[in-house]
Amino acid sequence: QKEVEQDPGPLSVPEGAIVSLNCTYSNSAFQYFMWYRQYSRKGPELLMYTYSSGNKEDGRFTAQVDKSSKYISLFIRDSQPSDSATYLCAMSYTGTASKLTFGTGTRLQVTL
Amino acid sequence: EAGVTQSPTHLIKTRGQQVTLRCSPISGHTSVYWYQQALGLGLQFLLWYDEGEERNRGNFPPRFSGRQFPNYSSELNVNALELEDSALYLCASSPLGGATEAFFGQGTRLTVV
Questions:
Q1: Residue A95 CB: number of other CB atoms within 10 A?
Q2: A94: nearest CA partner in chain B
Q3: Dihedral of CA B60/B62/B68/B74: which sign?
Q4: Does residue A108 belong to the interface with chain B, where contact is any CB pair within 8 Å?
Q5: CB atoms A99 and B45 under 8 Å
Q6: Residue of chain A whose Cα is closest to the Cα of B55
Q7: Phi and psi (nearest 5°) for B85?
Q8: Which of B57, B61, B52 is nearest to B34 (CA)?
């Protein structure tokens, strides 16, 4: 079993929809949780960063962490075609980028 | 401000050959990380360099090695290439040793035939 599980998709939604992306994990020591967005032929770009449990909002994006269920989510409101990308969750038990464990990514397509 | 730059963008090598990938971090960043992104496997941590020293290594064989130069740029070397080394190799940098937020380059696509 992988430490971090993420549905690969693809997930196709119409423009304006609310998108929910999720990851589950098995290591209860994870404390730092991140979401990256990766466009085709590009490197990942950090979208959201959360420490421990709770919610964090940034514009149209909301990240949620439920440590009791070992479950994290990224919500995208009013989705746009420009949101079409692969979304990677990542997590760490330390605060260092060298200890990140990534999910395999969910491919999202927002259609007109 | 320039982001993390990697070269070359694409590379085709034959099994058994050796390859060197290069990375220039964001100006002022001292830490460089190397990741492998193989199809279906997600990003796997390879190496972390900070202030010229190797600080941490992922679960990869010794034929994966690298170094960091005094200007904080970095090289990743892979010897005795195998078909399963075909992947996107990503370099990331961060401003402090061991910072959580890392900024990625566009990657080098390596194909081993």
A1: 13
A2: B100
A3: negative
A4: no
A5: yes
A6: A98
A7: -80, -10
A8: B57
Structure tokens belonging to residue A65: 């962490």
Query: Rounded to whole angstroms, how far apart are CA atoms B67 and B56?
Result: 12
Alpha carbon distances (Å) from A38 to A32, A41, A68, B64: 19, 8, 28, 25
| Contacts (Cβ under 8 Å, ≥6 apart) of A59 | none
When computed from its CA atoms, the radius of gyration of chain A, rounded to whole angstroms, is 13
Chain B interface test: which of A50, A96, A99, A100 (most B C-beta within 10 Å): A96
Of B43, B101, B104, the CB nearest to A49: B101
**pLDDT tens, position by position, for chain B (113 residues)?**
689 999 999 999 999 999 999 999 999 999 999 999 998 778 999 999 999 999 989 999 999 999 999 999 999 999 999 999 999 999 999 887 666 678 899 999 999 99
- Dist CA B94 CA A24 (whole Å): 27
B45–A104 CB contact, under 8 Å: no
Rounded to the nearest angstrom, the minimum Cα separation between A77 and chain B is 24
Three-state SS across chain B?
A: CCCCEEECCEEEECCCCCEEEEEECCCCCCEEEEEEEECCCEEEEEEEEECCEEEEECCCCCCEEEEECCCCCEEEEECCCCHHHCEEEEEEEECCCCCCCCEECCCEEEEEC
In chain B, which residues have their Cβ closer than 8 Å to the Cβ of A36? 104
- Residue given tokens 């005795």 in the structure block: B80
